[in-house]
Design a protein that fits this description.
Blueprint: E1 3-5, E2 8-10, E3 14-16, H1 25-33, E4 39-45, H2 46-55, H3 62-66, E5 76-81, H4 85-96, E6 111-116, H5 121-124, H6 136-149, E7 154-161, H7 169-178, E8 183-190, H8 201-210, E9 216-219, H9 225-235, E10 239-242, H10 251-260, H11 270-288, H12 290-305, H13 311-320, H14 324-338
Parallel strand pairs: 3-10, 4-5, 5-6, 6-7, 7-8, 8-9, 9-10
Antiparallel strand pairs: 1-2
Helix pairs in contact: 1-11, 2-4, 4-6, 6-7, 7-8, 9-10, 11-12, 11-14, 12-13
Bound molecules: flavin mononucleotide (FMN).
Length: 339
């Protein structure tokens, strides 16, 4: 199994899903190290990026930092959300040109990904994210506009549909494919389902069957290598995208790769896993500074320790820690108890 997104060639098609508040540069780097072949940024608001640019605001730019790309993490995509084709196109152009305010990237991402799946009310009430799926024509216009603005590939991430009475992933997928999309990710749930367990693999299979010439990537509820193999065999999709399964478990990517290559994979011992948690904490502090980096790393660390004996007590110590040094000491104690 291999797939191409434009000129980007992936050996197996194992993707890290975009997750706001999670898939920052540090987490993306860790997932890449453990087998994710392609990653996607947290979502960036296209309109906010354009406004910040036009108004030449001088305070720090949230969009700028979310859209930052470093050379050693390619291939990766920056994901944008919005509902107005012109803002989406302008934001994509700024990102490709590394010319947005607050930009520290020296190179563009490998692709622009368009969010058509976010179920959060704040987003859908503006007609953005999954609300776009209620208007397939607009979905096509957005893709056409973004394609016209950049030379890098443009990918689209959709859901099954808005609710169980309006499952229209096939219609939206065909429309965005005709508008020039270079790949489609299908999260096999409706907006109404949010993240409730239970995905409908037949939706991914139907999209794969109806869209020709570009890869279809399946997404939803992959927590083990077997889950990935099942999705691939039951839907014939070209690749798999993993979100929550990677939280505290970036080794999931390696285990999927091993399964696809017919090899066995041993998840590392607890102490090795905790060393990776320590590394992630250091990277996040370096990326965002002590205060923000530590605050944001706490939930990540909690995911790494959730299966240990006494996890609830350790989690509470992590959450109440006053700085990264204290969390490092806690992790060192857990490492010595588990080696
Ligand atoms: C905390 C969190 C944040 C997310 N943020 C985004 C986002 O910014 N853009 C997006 O397209 N999907 C986002 N998603 C959805 C995931 O990319 C993915 O489609 C969903 O979690 C299903 O995959 P999973 O079952 O492997 O987690 C988010 C999901 C979670 C749990």
């Amino acid at each position: 199994m291999s797939l191409n997104i434009g000129k980007i060639k992936l050996r197996h098609g194992i993707f890290l899903a975009p997750m706001a508040g999670v898939t920052d540069a540090s987490f993306r780097a860790i997932c890449r190290r453990f087998g994710a072949e392609y990653t996607v940024s947290e979502m960036v608001c296209a309109k906010a990026m354009c406004y910040e640019q036009r108004n030449k605001r001088t305070d720090s730019s949230k969009s700028g930092s979310l859209a930052t790309v470093s050379e050693d993490e390619l291939p990766m995509a920056v994901q944008i959300f919005g509902s107005e084709p012109e803002y989406m196109a302008e934001a994509a152009r700024l990102i490709e040109g590394c010319s947005y305010r607050g930009c520290v990237s020296t190179i563009p991402p490998s692709a622009i990904d368009i969010n058509m799946g976010c179920p959060v009310k704040k987003i859908t009430s503006n007609g953005e994210g999954s609300a776009l799926m209620r208007d397939p024509v607009l979905c096509g216009r957005i893709v056409e506009a973004v394609k016209g603005a950049v030379s890098i590939p443009v990918t689209v991430k959709i859901r099954a549909g808005w609710d169980k009475n309006s499952i229209n992933a096939v219609e939206v997928a065909r429309t965005v494919c005709e508008a020039g999309a270079d790949a489609i990710v299908v999260h096999a749930r409706t907006k109404e389902q949010l993240y409730a367990p239970g995905i409908d693999l037949s939706v991914i299979a139907a999209v794969k069957d109806s869209v020709k010439g570009i890869p279809v990537i399946g997404n939803g509820d992959i927590y083990t290598a077997d889950d990935a193999l099942k999705m691939l065999s039951e839907t014939a999709c070209d690749g798999v995208m993993i979100g929550r399964g990677a939280l505290g478990n970036p080794w999931l990517f390696s285990s999927i790769r091993a399964a696809l290559e017919g090899e066995t994979f041993e998840i590392p011992a607890v102490d090795e896993r905790l060393e990776v948690a320590k590394e992630l904490l250091s990277m996040m502090v370096k990326e965002k500074g002590e205060r923000v980096g530590t605050a944001e790393a706490k939930k990540q660390i909690a995911w790494f320790i959730r299966d240990l004996n006494g996890a609830a007590a350790s989690r509470s110590l992590v959450m109440n820690a006053t700085g990264s040094a204290e969390i490092m000491r806690l992790l060192d104690t857990l490492i010595s108890q588990n080696s």
